[in-house]
UniProtKB/TrEMBL annotation:
It comes from Bradyrhizobium zhengyangense. The keyword NADP applies. Residues 7-320 form the Enoyl reductase (ER) domain. The keyword Glycoprotein does not apply. Signal peptide: none annotated. SUPFAM superfamilies: GroES-like (SSF50129), NAD(P)-binding Rossmann-fold domains (SSF51735). This is Zinc-binding dehydrogenase. It comes from the Bacteria. Pfam families: ADH_N, ADH_zinc_N. InterPro entries: ADH-like_C (IPR013149), ADH-like_N (IPR013154), ER (IPR020843), GroES-like_sf (IPR011032), NAD(P)-bd_dom_sf (IPR036291), Zinc-ADH_QOR/CCCR (IPR051603).
Length: 322
Protein backbone atom coordinates (compact mmCIF):
# COMPACT_ATOMS: atom_id res chain seq x y z
CA UNK A 1 0.00 0.00 0.00
CA UNK A 2 1.01 3.66 -0.39
CA UNK A 3 2.17 5.46 2.75
CA UNK A 4 4.04 8.65 3.63
CA UNK A 5 7.17 7.41 5.38
CA UNK A 6 10.10 9.17 7.05
CA UNK A 7 13.39 7.66 5.90
CA UNK A 8 17.09 8.39 5.52
CA UNK A 9 16.39 10.91 2.76
CA UNK A 10 13.43 12.53 4.46
CA UNK A 11 9.70 11.91 4.11
CA UNK A 12 8.30 10.50 0.89
CA UNK A 13 5.51 8.31 -0.46
CA UNK A 14 6.61 4.67 -0.38
CA UNK A 15 5.19 1.18 -0.73
CA UNK A 16 4.83 -0.62 2.61
CA UNK A 17 3.05 -3.75 3.81
CA UNK A 18 -0.61 -3.40 4.70
CA UNK A 19 -1.04 -3.82 8.48
CA UNK A 20 -3.14 -6.55 10.09
CA UNK A 21 -5.40 -5.78 13.08
CA UNK A 22 -4.69 -7.56 16.35
CA UNK A 23 -6.53 -7.56 19.66
CA UNK A 24 -8.77 -4.51 19.96
CA UNK A 25 -7.49 -2.92 16.76
CA UNK A 26 -9.51 -2.15 13.65
CA UNK A 27 -8.10 -1.83 10.15
CA UNK A 28 -9.23 1.40 8.54
CA UNK A 29 -9.46 2.15 4.84
CA UNK A 30 -8.30 5.78 5.02
CA UNK A 31 -10.20 8.30 2.89
CA UNK A 32 -8.87 11.60 4.26
CA UNK A 33 -6.27 12.83 6.76
CA UNK A 34 -5.93 16.00 8.79
CA UNK A 35 -2.51 17.65 9.17
CA UNK A 36 -1.33 18.67 12.64
CA UNK A 37 1.63 20.70 13.88
CA UNK A 38 3.28 17.63 15.38
CA UNK A 39 3.38 16.09 11.89
CA UNK A 40 5.72 18.84 10.68
CA UNK A 41 8.31 17.91 13.30
CA UNK A 42 8.04 14.18 12.64
CA UNK A 43 8.43 14.88 8.92
CA UNK A 44 11.86 16.31 9.81
CA UNK A 45 12.82 13.28 11.87
CA UNK A 46 11.81 14.51 15.33
CA UNK A 47 10.20 12.15 17.80
CA UNK A 48 6.67 12.71 19.08
CA UNK A 49 6.45 10.80 22.31
CA UNK A 50 7.52 7.24 21.51
CA UNK A 51 6.82 7.65 17.77
CA UNK A 52 9.14 8.91 15.08
CA UNK A 53 12.41 8.18 13.33
CA UNK A 54 13.40 6.22 10.24
CA UNK A 55 10.71 3.89 8.92
CA UNK A 56 7.84 5.73 10.62
CA UNK A 57 4.61 6.07 8.67
CA UNK A 58 3.61 9.64 9.47
CA UNK A 59 0.24 11.16 10.35
CA UNK A 60 -2.07 11.04 13.37
CA UNK A 61 -5.61 11.96 12.26
CA UNK A 62 -7.88 10.34 9.70
CA UNK A 63 -11.37 9.48 8.53
CA UNK A 64 -12.37 6.35 6.64
CA UNK A 65 -14.16 3.01 6.76
CA UNK A 66 -13.69 -0.12 8.84
CA UNK A 67 -12.06 -2.72 6.60
CA UNK A 68 -11.37 -5.48 9.12
CA UNK A 69 -11.76 -6.10 12.85
CA UNK A 70 -9.25 -7.53 15.30
CA UNK A 71 -10.50 -10.52 17.35
CA UNK A 72 -11.24 -8.36 20.43
CA UNK A 73 -12.56 -5.21 18.74
CA UNK A 74 -16.04 -4.26 19.91
CA UNK A 75 -18.79 -1.87 18.87
CA UNK A 76 -17.91 -1.62 15.18
CA UNK A 77 -18.52 -3.59 12.00
CA UNK A 78 -16.90 -3.72 8.57
CA UNK A 79 -18.09 -0.80 6.46
CA UNK A 80 -18.72 1.62 9.33
CA UNK A 81 -17.70 5.21 8.58
CA UNK A 82 -15.37 6.33 11.37
CA UNK A 83 -12.82 8.99 12.26
CA UNK A 84 -10.05 8.86 14.80
CA UNK A 85 -6.49 9.52 15.83
CA UNK A 86 -3.33 7.49 16.25
CA UNK A 87 -0.08 6.85 14.43
CA UNK A 88 0.51 5.98 10.77
CA UNK A 89 -2.49 7.89 9.40
CA UNK A 90 -0.91 9.00 6.11
CA UNK A 91 -1.49 5.72 4.32
CA UNK A 92 -4.09 3.82 2.35
CA UNK A 93 -4.77 1.72 5.47
CA UNK A 94 -4.09 2.35 9.15
CA UNK A 95 -4.76 0.65 12.48
CA UNK A 96 -6.76 2.15 15.34
CA UNK A 97 -7.81 0.99 18.78
CA UNK A 98 -11.56 0.42 18.91
CA UNK A 99 -11.87 2.97 21.71
CA UNK A 100 -9.98 5.71 19.91
CA UNK A 101 -12.51 6.29 17.15
CA UNK A 102 -15.73 8.23 16.63
CA UNK A 103 -18.50 7.31 14.23
CA UNK A 104 -18.47 9.83 11.40
CA UNK A 105 -21.84 11.65 11.34
CA UNK A 106 -23.90 10.95 8.25
CA UNK A 107 -24.04 14.66 7.40
CA UNK A 108 -20.24 14.94 7.05
CA UNK A 109 -18.02 13.91 4.19
CA UNK A 110 -14.66 12.28 4.91
CA UNK A 111 -12.72 15.53 4.45
CA UNK A 112 -14.84 17.25 7.10
CA UNK A 113 -14.67 14.29 9.46
CA UNK A 114 -10.87 14.17 9.22
CA UNK A 115 -10.61 17.65 10.74
CA UNK A 116 -12.21 16.76 14.06
CA UNK A 117 -10.77 13.87 16.12
CA UNK A 118 -7.61 15.52 17.47
CA UNK A 119 -9.31 18.86 18.16
CA UNK A 120 -12.33 17.32 19.89
CA UNK A 121 -10.34 14.95 22.12
CA UNK A 122 -7.58 17.42 22.96
CA UNK A 123 -9.74 20.41 23.72
CA UNK A 124 -12.66 18.74 25.45
CA UNK A 125 -10.09 17.29 27.83
CA UNK A 126 -8.24 20.61 28.25
CA UNK A 127 -11.23 22.95 28.49
CA UNK A 128 -13.80 20.77 30.27
CA UNK A 129 -12.21 17.81 32.08
CA UNK A 130 -8.94 19.44 33.20
CA UNK A 131 -9.82 23.11 32.76
CA UNK A 132 -13.11 22.79 34.60
CA UNK A 133 -14.88 25.47 32.58
CA UNK A 134 -18.21 26.54 34.08
CA UNK A 135 -21.06 28.75 32.86
CA UNK A 136 -20.31 32.42 33.41
CA UNK A 137 -16.52 32.00 33.47
CA UNK A 138 -13.90 33.85 31.41
CA UNK A 139 -11.58 31.79 29.21
CA UNK A 140 -8.49 32.67 27.16
CA UNK A 141 -7.24 30.38 24.39
CA UNK A 142 -3.61 31.06 23.47
CA UNK A 143 -2.91 30.11 19.85
CA UNK A 144 -6.61 30.28 19.03
CA UNK A 145 -6.32 30.34 15.23
CA UNK A 146 -5.04 26.75 15.03
CA UNK A 147 -7.57 24.01 14.40
CA UNK A 148 -7.52 22.87 18.02
CA UNK A 149 -7.65 26.50 19.16
CA UNK A 150 -10.76 27.21 17.11
CA UNK A 151 -12.36 24.11 18.62
CA UNK A 152 -11.38 25.15 22.15
CA UNK A 153 -13.20 28.47 21.79
CA UNK A 154 -16.31 26.75 20.46
CA UNK A 155 -16.33 24.20 23.29
CA UNK A 156 -15.89 26.95 25.89
CA UNK A 157 -18.83 28.85 24.40
CA UNK A 158 -20.93 25.68 24.21
CA UNK A 159 -20.30 25.05 27.92
CA UNK A 160 -21.53 28.51 28.84
CA UNK A 161 -18.38 30.63 29.19
CA UNK A 162 -19.38 34.28 29.60
CA UNK A 163 -16.25 35.69 27.95
CA UNK A 164 -14.06 33.85 25.43
CA UNK A 165 -10.79 35.50 24.42
CA UNK A 166 -8.61 34.16 21.62
CA UNK A 167 -5.05 35.11 20.72
CA UNK A 168 -3.31 35.16 17.35
CA UNK A 169 -0.27 37.06 16.14
CA UNK A 170 -1.56 37.15 12.55
CA UNK A 171 -3.90 40.11 11.80
CA UNK A 172 -6.09 38.25 9.29
CA UNK A 173 -6.58 35.19 11.47
CA UNK A 174 -7.08 37.34 14.55
CA UNK A 175 -9.87 39.11 12.70
CA UNK A 176 -11.59 35.77 12.04
CA UNK A 177 -11.61 34.51 15.63
CA UNK A 178 -15.01 36.03 16.39
CA UNK A 179 -16.50 33.72 13.76
CA UNK A 180 -15.53 30.80 16.02
CA UNK A 181 -16.62 31.96 19.45
CA UNK A 182 -14.22 34.72 20.48
CA UNK A 183 -15.74 37.77 22.18
CA UNK A 184 -12.33 39.45 22.14
CA UNK A 185 -9.24 38.76 20.01
CA UNK A 186 -5.77 39.80 21.22
CA UNK A 187 -2.27 39.78 19.74
CA UNK A 188 0.00 37.86 22.12
CA UNK A 189 3.06 39.50 20.52
CA UNK A 190 1.78 42.92 21.64
CA UNK A 191 3.20 43.80 25.11
CA UNK A 192 -0.17 45.31 26.03
CA UNK A 193 -2.30 42.22 25.55
CA UNK A 194 -2.45 41.48 29.29
CA UNK A 195 -3.92 44.93 29.92
CA UNK A 196 -6.61 44.19 27.31
CA UNK A 197 -7.53 40.98 29.11
CA UNK A 198 -7.60 42.66 32.53
CA UNK A 199 -9.77 45.46 31.19
CA UNK A 200 -12.23 42.95 29.70
CA UNK A 201 -12.44 41.09 33.04
CA UNK A 202 -12.83 44.08 35.34
CA UNK A 203 -9.22 43.86 36.45
CA UNK A 204 -9.50 40.30 37.77
CA UNK A 205 -8.11 38.21 34.91
CA UNK A 206 -9.57 35.11 33.31
CA UNK A 207 -10.65 31.99 35.15
CA UNK A 208 -8.93 29.67 32.67
CA UNK A 209 -6.15 29.89 30.11
CA UNK A 210 -5.68 27.02 27.67
CA UNK A 211 -2.13 27.66 26.51
CA UNK A 212 -0.74 26.34 23.23
CA UNK A 213 2.08 28.90 23.14
CA UNK A 214 3.89 28.75 26.52
CA UNK A 215 7.51 29.91 26.45
CA UNK A 216 7.56 33.64 25.90
CA UNK A 217 4.01 34.23 27.22
CA UNK A 218 4.33 32.15 30.41
CA UNK A 219 4.69 35.08 32.81
CA UNK A 220 2.13 37.17 30.96
CA UNK A 221 -0.30 34.28 31.35
CA UNK A 222 0.22 34.37 35.10
CA UNK A 223 -0.56 38.08 35.14
CA UNK A 224 -3.70 37.57 33.01
CA UNK A 225 -5.14 34.78 35.20
CA UNK A 226 -7.28 35.62 38.20
CA UNK A 227 -6.43 34.58 41.74
CA UNK A 228 -7.23 30.87 42.12
CA UNK A 229 -7.50 30.59 38.32
CA UNK A 230 -6.17 27.77 36.20
CA UNK A 231 -3.71 27.45 33.32
CA UNK A 232 -3.76 24.27 31.20
CA UNK A 233 -0.62 23.89 29.13
CA UNK A 234 -1.26 21.83 25.98
CA UNK A 235 1.62 22.92 23.76
CA UNK A 236 4.90 24.69 23.29
CA UNK A 237 4.67 26.72 20.09
CA UNK A 238 6.51 29.53 21.85
CA UNK A 239 9.43 27.38 23.00
CA UNK A 240 10.11 24.66 25.57
CA UNK A 241 12.12 26.81 28.00
CA UNK A 242 11.51 30.28 29.40
CA UNK A 243 11.77 32.42 32.51
CA UNK A 244 8.97 31.69 35.00
CA UNK A 245 7.84 34.04 37.77
CA UNK A 246 7.36 31.59 40.64
CA UNK A 247 6.44 34.38 43.05
CA UNK A 248 3.60 35.59 40.82
CA UNK A 249 2.44 32.01 40.39
CA UNK A 250 2.31 31.54 44.15
CA UNK A 251 0.80 34.95 44.88
CA UNK A 252 -2.09 34.38 42.51
CA UNK A 253 -2.44 30.76 43.70
CA UNK A 254 -2.81 29.53 40.13
CA UNK A 255 -3.26 25.84 39.27
CA UNK A 256 -0.82 25.17 36.41
CA UNK A 257 -1.49 21.84 34.72
CA UNK A 258 0.26 20.15 31.81
CA UNK A 259 -1.58 17.78 29.48
CA UNK A 260 -0.48 15.70 26.49
CA UNK A 261 -1.49 12.52 24.70
CA UNK A 262 2.16 11.46 24.39
CA UNK A 263 2.32 9.91 27.87
CA UNK A 264 -1.24 8.65 28.19
CA UNK A 265 -2.13 4.98 28.26
CA UNK A 266 -4.64 3.61 25.79
CA UNK A 267 -7.09 3.25 28.70
CA UNK A 268 -6.79 6.97 29.42
CA UNK A 269 -7.27 7.84 25.76
CA UNK A 270 -10.37 5.64 25.55
CA UNK A 271 -11.82 7.51 28.52
CA UNK A 272 -11.20 10.86 26.84
CA UNK A 273 -12.96 9.73 23.66
CA UNK A 274 -15.88 8.38 25.71
CA UNK A 275 -16.21 11.71 27.55
CA UNK A 276 -16.45 13.51 24.20
CA UNK A 277 -19.18 11.12 23.07
CA UNK A 278 -21.15 11.53 26.29
CA UNK A 279 -20.81 15.29 26.70
CA UNK A 280 -20.70 17.09 23.34
CA UNK A 281 -21.46 14.61 20.58
CA UNK A 282 -24.88 16.09 19.90
CA UNK A 283 -23.18 19.39 19.06
CA UNK A 284 -20.84 17.58 16.65
CA UNK A 285 -23.72 15.85 14.87
CA UNK A 286 -25.68 19.11 14.59
CA UNK A 287 -22.57 20.82 13.16
CA UNK A 288 -22.53 23.32 16.02
CA UNK A 289 -18.94 22.22 16.60
CA UNK A 290 -17.00 22.19 13.35
CA UNK A 291 -13.75 23.40 11.82
CA UNK A 292 -13.08 25.23 8.58
CA UNK A 293 -11.07 23.45 5.89
CA UNK A 294 -8.39 25.77 4.58
CA UNK A 295 -7.30 23.60 1.64
CA UNK A 296 -7.56 20.01 0.40
CA UNK A 297 -4.67 18.20 -1.33
CA UNK A 298 -4.44 14.86 -3.09
CA UNK A 299 -2.20 12.28 -1.43
CA UNK A 300 0.38 12.58 -4.21
CA UNK A 301 0.67 16.28 -3.33
CA UNK A 302 1.21 15.74 0.40
CA UNK A 303 4.55 17.59 0.31
CA UNK A 304 2.70 20.65 -0.98
CA UNK A 305 0.26 20.32 1.91
CA UNK A 306 3.16 20.47 4.35
CA UNK A 307 4.67 23.46 2.56
CA UNK A 308 1.31 25.20 2.95
CA UNK A 309 1.23 24.42 6.68
CA UNK A 310 4.81 25.58 7.20
CA UNK A 311 4.02 28.88 5.47
CA UNK A 312 1.74 29.46 8.49
CA UNK A 313 -0.91 31.45 6.65
CA UNK A 314 -3.80 29.01 6.86
CA UNK A 315 -6.91 29.22 9.06
CA UNK A 316 -8.37 25.91 10.14
CA UNK A 317 -7.38 22.50 8.84
CA UNK A 318 -5.33 21.30 5.91
CA UNK A 319 -6.68 17.98 4.61
CA UNK A 320 -5.15 15.30 2.37
CA UNK A 321 -7.41 12.84 0.55
CA UNK A 322 -6.26 9.27 -0.02
Amino acid sequence: MKAYVYGAEGARISDVAQPKPKGTQVLVKVRACGLNRADTGMRKGHAHGAAGGAGTVLGMEWAGEVAELGPDAKGLKVGDRIMGSGGAAFAEYTLADHGRVFRAPSNMNFEEAATLPVALATMHNAVVTVGGVQPGRAVLIQGASSGVGLMAMQIAKLKGAKLVIGSSTDPYRRGRLKDYGADLAVDSSDPNWVEEVLKATGGEGVDLIVDQVSGKVANQNLAATKILGRIVNVGRLGGTHADFNFDLHAARRISYIGVTFRTRSIEEVRTIFEEVRKDIWGAVESRKLQLPIDKVYAFDDIDKAFEHMEANKHLGKIVVTV
